Amino acid sequence: MATKDEVLTALDDVEDPELKLSIVELGLVYDVRFESKEGKEHAEVDMTLTSPGCPAAAEIMAAAHRAALNAVESVHINLVWSPRWDPKIHASEDARMDMGIWD
User: Fold this and answer.
1) Residue 27 has what pLDDT?
2) Cα separation, 43 vs 4, whole angstroms
3) What's CA 56's distance to the chain center, in Å?
4) Which pLDDT does position 53 carry in this prediction?
5) For the chain, how many structural domains are there in total?
6) Residue 46: enclosing H or E segment and its boundaries?
7) Could you tell me if residue 70 is inside a domain?
8) Shortest CA distance to 89 belongs to which of 30, 43, 16, 14?
């Protein structure tokens, strides 16, 4: 059975096409949960985007789905808007530095 860390590692390969940073480093992936669905290992991934009007939403969601399938048999990507993404709170220190956000 896959672990949350394995799914996050797979998702780390997905980049925001505008920021050129990993969706995991940006803190866009909020949660990964597991369940058995029809005898298959299934993951539910809660993630958000940098903004509700993100022009690359479909591209990012599809890339996240494909990447997660490298770790689990079945996955559903849930697009959530709560909590609202804030790079000062959700992004890693390295991602904040790359975006020029200095605390």
Assistant:
1) 98
2) 9
3) 14
4) 93
5) 1
6) strand 40-47
7) yes
8) 30
CA-CA distance, 96 to 71, in Å (whole number)?
Answer: 27
The CATH number of whichever domain residue 44 belongs to comes to 3.30.300.130
CA distance 75 to 46: 11
Q: Is the pTM of this model over 0.85?
A: yes
Asked whether residue 103 is domain-assigned, the answer is no
Domain that holds residue 82: 4-95
Burial 22-31 (b: 16+ CB within 10 A, else e): bbbbbbbbee
Asked whether 71 and 2 are in contact (CB, 8 A), the reply is yes
pLDDT in tens, the chain (103 residues): 889 999 999 999 999 999 999 999 999 999 999 988 777 889 999 999 999 999 999 999 999 999 999 999 999 999 999 999 999 999 999 999 999 998 6
What is the number of alpha carbons within 13 Å of residue 55 lying toward its C-beta? 3
Report the distance separating Cα 41 and Cα 36, nearest Å. Answer: 5
